[in-house]
Structures are given as structure tokens and as C-alpha cells.
Design brief:
The protein is an alpha/beta fold and 176 residues long. It contains 8 helices and 5 strands, in the order βαβαααβαβααβα.
Length: 176
């Protein structure tokens, strides 16, 4: 069974996902890291700068197709913008069990603990606060549409989020 983790930028898809997959004894894969590996560049930010967002989104869809056609069991952290393409949403719904990490902007993008990560987020670099909020509101129904389960993180400490996520992963993997 492939389990995908979706959610807005800086909600913890990669960090919580990696820890939770480890606790559940399941392999972890990060979609953005796989795209970077295949691109020959050093980061998502560099791909955006040198090749542009459209090129990144094309690479994202191609890599998503390749990964989701695997026969292995693993947890896949998706990029926050992968839901923008209908083709990607359909692939995720058809080929995986999707967990949505739902976090308010105050507990993700605007949280002081994530300030150091902002420099690596190409979209956030050029967006006003209002544009970030509009993008968040635009994506919420897209995440909702593909999610089989939602974990709302506001008010939870990291350990509780990881425990909840690991519990869902274990449950899904042992019932598939």
C-alpha cells in the first residue's frame, strides 16, 4: 500500500511523515527530494529559479506517476502544490491512501519555528501575506477532495502528531 501525505507548505508533510513512517516500520519517500535528484540541480528553489515553476510542475507529475506505479509499500510526502493539477489529484486518489495534514497558517507558514525554512520556499519568497492566504484557501478544497483521512495539527505537540500519523499509517498498512 502506498500512503501519501498532503497539505499546505510547512505543515510537516516531510518531517512528520518521515518520523511516523519510521515508527510504523514503513519506507519513506519525499516527492520533492526525488524530483531534485533527477533534475541534476541542488534544490526545488534552484529548479524554480533556473527552469521555472511550469517545468518543476511537469517534473512533479512525471515523478508522481513513476513513484505511484511502484509495487512497494511506502509513505510518500507530496509537495504542497501537487494538488493544483487534476491529473495529479486523480493519480493520488487512484493509487494511494491519502492523509491530509491540516494546519492553520499560524501554525505552519507564519509560525516562528519555521522562519528558517522560508528561504527554501520559492513561492513564499514572492508572495504577499494576502496572496499566501488566498493560495491556502484555494488549495483547502483540493486537499479535502483527495484525502482519505485528515489529521488536524493545531494545538498538538509534535510527538502527538507523529503518533497520530504513525497510527493511521500502521492501521492502513495492516488492513490492506
Amino acid at each position: 500500500m502506498i500512503i501519501t501525505i498532503t497539505g499546505f507548505m510547512l505543515c510537516g508533510k516531510s518531517s512528520y511523515g518521515k518520523d511516523a513512517a519510521g515508527r510504523a516500520g514503513i519506507k519513506f519517500v519525499d516527492l520533492d527530494k526525488e524530483i531534485v535528484k533527477c533534475s541534476g540541480l541542488s534544490s526545488v528553489k534552484e529548479i524554480f529559479e533556473k527552469k521555472g515553476e511550469n517545468s518543476f510542475r511537469e517534473m512533479e507529475t512525471a515523478m508522481l506517476k513513476q513513484i505511484l506505479n511502484s509495487e512497494e509499500d511506502f509513505v510518500l510526502a507530496l509537495g504542497g502544490g501537487v494538488v493544483e493539477k487534476e491529473e495529479n489529484r486523480q493519480l493520488i486518489m487512484d493509487k494511494s491512501f491519502c492523509i491530509w495534514i491540516l494546519s492553520s497558517l499560524d501554525n505552519s507558514v507564519y509560525s516562528p519555528r519555521f522562519v528558517s525554512y522560508l528561504a527554501e520556499r520559492p513561492l513564499l519568497q514572492k508572495m504577499s501575506k494576502q496572496e499566501v492566504e488566498e493560495l491556502y484557501e484555494h488549495r483547502l478544497p483540493l486537499y479535502r477532495d483527495i484525502a482519505n483521512q485528515t489529521i488536524f495539527t493545531d494545538g498538538l505537540i509534535d510527538e502527538d502528531i507523529i503518533d497520530d500519523l504513525a497510527s493511521v499509517i500502521s492501521s492502513v498498512c495492516h488492513h490492506s
